[in-house]
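Because showing beats explaining, we think one record worth quoting, sequence and backbone structure tokens together, and here it is:
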Amino acid sequence: MDIATIIGIALGIGLLLGAIMLGGDVTLFLDSPSLMMTMGGALAGVLISYPISQVIHSFRTLRVVFAPRRRGKNTELVEFLVYLVEKSRREGLLALEDELETLTDPFFRRGLELVIDGTPPELVRDILEKDIDSLIVRHRQGRGVFETLGALSPAFGMIGTLVGLIRMLKDLDDPSNIGSGMALALMTTLYGAVAAYLVFIPVAGKLKIRSTEEVRKKEMVIEGLLAVLAGESPRYTREKLTSFLSPREREELPWAVRPSIGEGEGVEAYAE
């Protein structure tokens, strides 16, 4: 699992519970009506905003948030693309058909098939960039569910606060009911803020990072495949693809003649 996500959740919950326990009884902060009003209202708002299939799919993407970053490194992808350029210059485009067997990433495989078929470069770029555009739209929709939950949770917390205040003011003549009204007023705000700023908004942020990383890799694939199709020199391709890397990643480039990627694990490492 992604260690940063686990540490963040554990740290947030631990500090929150620790502060509560230092102040007294934890059970004072457990209130089912407040939870129902805050989380139920936020979920209802999301179901109104998105189709049910989209909501279910978005919650399934939570595995991306908790999954470790075990995908292939950008440096390994650069190496493999340079290798394809070198092989195509030595043996021709048809020789790359052997590499198709190592590719389980549909995007990479589709692009390489287009290259082997001799598809015009502008058409290859257009087709693959449309795939990326569709990917970005899907990721934005999935992320939008959590962003909406993050926006609605505090709002329904405030609605719960108003409900609690109305109940409290209505029963001012009965001091025994003032406490329950005040508890509802404060607990809904607390639940809404914690859910939004500890769970939903951070999850949306992590999904955005994962999406950016995947799009970046696919853009590298496009540039590498176009270099294969154009018959560019490996040195020029290296320099062009290296521009996608951070300074730290550039220091990791060994520039092997035939990288180990594609043998055993294949290039499925680049499929998100």
